[in-house]
Specification:
By secondary structure, this protein is mainly alpha-helical. The protein is about 40% helix and about 5% strand. It contains nine helices and four strands, in the order H-H-H-H-H-H-H-E-E-H-H-E-E. The strands form two sheets. A two-stranded antiparallel sheet has the order 1-2. A two-stranded antiparallel ribbon has the order 3-4. Strand 1 and strand 2 form a beta hairpin. The radius of gyration is 23 Å and the shape is globular. The mean pLDDT is about 85.
Length: about 260
Amino acid sequence: YSIFWRASAVLELLDLQPYNRIDKVRGFATHGIAKMLHQLAHVSDAEAHPWYSKWNVHRFLRPEAFGGLVHLKKTGQRDYPLHASIFNSAVLEKMRQKSRHGTYLLPTITKSGSPTHPSYPAGHANSAGACATILKIWLDPHATRCWPGYIVEADRSGLNLKNYTGPEFEGAPIPNDKKENCLTVTGELNKLAHNVAMGRDFSGVHWRMDGVSGIRQGEEVAMNYIQNELDRQPECASRKFKSFDGDFVYITKSGCDPEYESIL
């Protein structure tokens, strides 16, 4: 959640509230920045949604635990029905050589290892997908708004940041919002959600599918949440955003014409 709160802090709120045709009314508690931050905090609870799937449906093994099965079979201590292609991989020998104890166990970044609950779907990815969706709905509904200022990337050492120019912008860095083909707010928020989810893979505690599915489930949580929010308010309003699959999604207060008092 905190990552997306910081993202919202560097983006000014566009005038997208449904009172924008009325001079004497502006959004705050309803359709204002306070409402956006309120919704952002609420959907971060999407991390609780995967628990039913984790325990009651899938009970999917963590990569670290699967590595334990591989080690036991590779060393002849157990005979598990694992696919032969795993044992033909050159990665196993590289892992053994790098291991302090000469094992085939899968290393993780943290000393404590993996969480003890099942792997699929990823809770962090659910929260990331939900929070990114809320910000896309509020800040870039048409998926065309440029991320303001400069885009930064890591240097070759990975320890410092530098302004991103890209191959088509050699020379002096150009502010992203001044470029003809800019990086959009929607695109950067999608990357942020992906980094949150895939970062858990890099640490050795999740499979790729955990994050990919988790992001989409979080997106669905946010969509249902926004629908409930619209249905609770007196005004007719609609919302629009581009999904992680690249399709535009429209959410409208039940019983209202999607074009009526649209905030799009």
